[in-house]
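Q: Joint fold for the lines below.
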Amino acid sequence: MDRREFAVLVGVAAFQHQHAALRKDPGSYKAQFLTAAELEQVAEAAEAMLPGARQVSVANHIDLVLTYSEPERQRRFRKGLQAFAAAPGAVEERFASLAPAEAKPSTDAERFFAMLKGMTLFAYYTSKQGIRGELGFLGNQVRGSFPGCEGQ
Amino acid sequence: MATKTYDAILVGSGAGGATAAWVLVHAGLDVLMLEAGRNLNPAKDFLTHSMPYDLPFRGVGKPGEYDGLWKINEYTAHLYTNPRKDTYDSIDGFHWTRLRAVGGRTNTWGRSCFRHGPLDFETWPVTYEEMAPYYDKVERLVGISGQADKYFNMPDGVYAGPPHKPRCGEVFLRERAARIGVPVLLERTAALSVPYDGRPACHYCGACGHGCDVRARFSTLDVMVPRLLTKANFTLRTNAVAHLVTSREGRADGVVFYDALSKKAYDAKAKAVVLAASTVESGRILLNSKLANSSGLVGRYLMDTIKSGPVVGVVPVLRNRKRVDEEGAGGSHVTIPRFNYQHKVDYQGGYFILTGTGFGRGMSSAGGLETKWGAALKEEIRSRYGATISLRGYGECLPYHSNAFEIDPERKDAYGIPQVRFRCGHGDNERLMMEDMYGWMERILKACDAEILPYRKYLEPLGDATHECGTARMGRDPRTSVLNSYCQSHDVKNLFVTDASCFVSSPGTHGITTWIMALAWRASEYLAEQMKRKELA
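A: Joint structure:
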């Protein structure tokens, strides 16, 4: 085995080691900040914001982030969620009326739309499905060469 | 330990400290290296191959934990000293980024290795011609992937292998920038494109910023310290937090340090002391020692590379490209070097532009997505993935006497060592340069037919580029400088500072690590000669 092959093997072993150590089971998640009912409301809204969000448990990650957030952010999120949940109509109809104010939100529900969107995008596009499945990221491999733009 | 007298004690194991050790140990001196942090095991300590979804907070840490701290994140926080925890006073928000571990910040550095040219040395007591042979030695040791470009005031160097090949976005950028006279060069980087010096070539996982687990990118931890440890005249003491340099009759005679774990104080003795603990730490040690400061300039003229915010454009012809692995050697494979030499501008100095392209580890940019949601939002993100070009200006920061750190009369660190406080900010020259940066970043993206996403003009706080330097400046006159051109204290002949503290200016050329190493090499050769001639006693 030459040095190059050895380096590749070391890289693969390190990758597998880290991956196994850090993998978490998302199915057993228990909400910490949100109530079970709120978690479901967030999951439903996140799915409408970004189809596929429920499949990767975006709401769980939002709950985790909120759990460690400043009390002010927690308060704003919950107040916004309550205002959003109390509004009439289907989620999609509510989004349609809230979206135009995203850049300058002035009501609790409008602020919720902006917060939920930021948190949903982050959670989804940092998930394995988001990065590798949806976007099609092919990196973080051990390769012998890099062709750059050649052949494309 | 107090009974033995070493030839030299070095404080710090990063670029400046390891280079000094390398030269002194090979010259036969008996050397003790003090490192404030622990030793690292790359395969275990670096989260090289981790993806966001492998970490509980997806790489960014708990909310607010590392916000605005470039380089410190969930992948690297266990390596760095978090300034939010080990606090210091800074009314201007100076970002003090410290990595206390063997190898220092060479463990996670940006790897750019462009030489500074003759014009950059105009205010220095050394010339490029004097430095060139030392750059040669450093580059042979580091192992750089690059090529000769014959670019103005950025001399070509010694390259271990060819540059890494550019990605499609980078090829496109080069072609379009050329139309408006803006040069795009291939990176000169310390990530190997070929096996070199017993180390493997890069395997293109793209995560150098997390720390490399196979030694394909240079660090003093991987390349220098292990070889030094085979020498009988080299001793490494880890977890040794330097407090001050002791002196007798105008000469340094040792270092007082604390064991990081037991917090017990130790006293080590030597015939010469070399500080290379990084710019602020070395200045702090000097100030706490009340040594080498007859000029009153230790801590003054603090500089960093000034750094703009990003400007991002979505390039229509790059949308919806076929997915390929574009991680490459981590970071960009091209750079826009300083190009304002012939321009009429209203500020001094120049800057380079860092570029970002390719299919990265997440959505390309969240800019300009307002009011979109649902399937339309998802479709836009998929379409623009890998189609953005992001630019960021990095420029020269002028040396101002008023930009400084000093010892805080109140605050101490966890070891009881008096802490520094910062008083610094950007001047008019930096703000005028920033305007020029943003103007050119817009022009370059327009030349790419890019849809420029909404952005805001600003400069990051000083320290953010992690190129802090200048607070024990070198010069010929002891009244206006702290060190001579050999990084030797004017006041204390056997005291040297071989990190970026000695810098006189901070030109806008990519990378200062090999510059630090070249200066440290030259200084250490001089130290060894002087010691042999008994000039330091």
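Q: Anything notable?
A: The two ends of chain A are 33 Å apart (CA to CA). Helices of chain A lie at 3-22, 36-49, 58-67, 71-86, 91-98, 108-125, 128-135.
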